[in-house]
Amino acid sequence: MMTTTALFWKTIEDIPGLATDTRDWRRRLGETWKHARPYLTETPRFAEQVNCPMPGGEHCPRRVVKQDDGSIRAVCGDRERLCKSLDLQPKHIRIRELDTDRLRSDIAKAFGINPVARQQRGMIEHLGDYLVRAGVGFPVFFSLAGRRNPIGTSDIFGLDRRGLPFVLMVPALRDVEPSVVAAIHGMDGRVLAFDECMQFARPPGQGFDASMLPSEIFAPEIATLADAEDDPVQPVLDLPVGATWAKLKFAFISEEVINVSYGKQAPVRIEPDLLGMKNQRNGKATRQWRLLLVCAVLDGALPRSFPVQTIRGQPLSAGSIKALDDVKRGYDRQRQHLFAALKSRFGITDLPPFKRTVDCYEAEFVVDASGLRQGVADQRDRNFVEPR
Ligand SMILES: [Zn+2]
């Protein structure tokens, strides 16, 4: 037997555009109507058609006709199918649409999630963060996409997870392909179905009640974050007390290797993995590492924001434009992550690694990109020589 919320979610999945007339909502929702009603906002529109009992006739469905006396009738043009005419009132054919803002905010409330302002309506939206304690939490996403428009793995890879465990909430598990569920698990994420973890609040309560305490529902994510705590990030270099960025030198020797040295200490070879900047899924460097690479290409600078006009007052070279194009998407957020990662990985937490100027962020550490250029030159030489 379906619980009341299960029918609500199923109805939402079934109705294209999340809007239909009041009569249709009531017919589909049955007993659930009284709970769902606050989420179904009246629009100024009225239905022009009303479904037939046996749909599919050539002249079905029933058309809404305004009579001379002001009354409304729904009439089927298909005489042979004998679809009965209906006497209706305006309220029956009033179009109601799902109030997704209210739904969002009530779901967040039910699960103790700190809601974030809605950025844009999308396939998957960031609902908010569940805070384990001040400053420590994980993101919760939700999607009403449903079966008609299934979530793909690319939608998942595009989520801004900030390297944290995460939860994706959907109306029902059937909305997510098993391959996508597997991809989510591989990324420390979990799918949670609304129809299994919450109900409509019992009157006089409003909104939803979670089926368990949020701390129980999110126990796996809370445990993951607690484990991470026991295993703090080890600095990648042994730096003296009071170390400053200015004495650090980052020398790129290839796109995925940096020799990092402090003062006169011997350089340490650093690859993306050591900075937590390797994508565990495809083994490639993350966007934060690529930003570091761009910083090297720009001789120690990163843009303030996009579009980029100048860096240090100079127009951009073709090579810089190309490099920047690669990191344009979600730049601000990635830049913040990079700055935070550098601070924690090098253990210099009281000083910023970059200084803000009029048109860029200037690295406080020394960046040497000559190895990169050498690499490109070697490549060219080889290409020149090899044909023999
Ligand atoms: Zn009909």
Q: What is the secondary structure topology, with strand pairs?
A:
Layout lengths: L3 H11 L4 E3 H8 L3 H4 L3 E7 L2 E2 L11 E5 L5 E4 L10 E3 L1 H4 E5 L1 H11 L3 E2 L9 E9 L2 E7 L10 H5 L8 E5 L7 H9 L2 E5 H4 E3 L7 E3 L3 H4 L1 H12 L17 E7 L2 E6 L5 E3 L16 H11 L3 E3 L6 E2 L2 E2 L2 H8 L5 H16 L7 E3 L3 E4 L2 E3 L1 H16 L3
Parallel strand pairs: 10-11, 11-12, 15-23
Antiparallel strand pairs: 1-7, 2-7, 3-4, 4-5, 5-6, 8-9, 9-10, 13-14, 15-16, 16-17, 18-22, 19-20, 21-22
Helix pairs in contact: 11-13
The structure holds zinc ion (ZN).
The site of zinc ion (ZN) has 9 residues, from loops.
Concise synopsis of the structure shown:
It is built from 14 helices and 23 strands. The protein has helices spanning 4-14, 22-29, 33-36, 90-93, 100-110, 153-157, 178-186, 194-197, 214-217, 219-230, 287-297, 318-325, 331-346, 370-385; strands at 19-21, 40-46, 49-50, 62-66, 72-75, 86-88, 94-98, 114-115, 125-133, 136-142, 166-170, 189-193, 198-200, 208-210, 248-254, 257-262, 268-270, 301-303, 310-311, 314-315, 354-356, 360-363, 366-368. A 5-stranded mixed sheet has the order 8-9-10-11-12, sandwiched between helices. The chain has a 4-stranded antiparallel sheet with strand order 3-4-5-6.
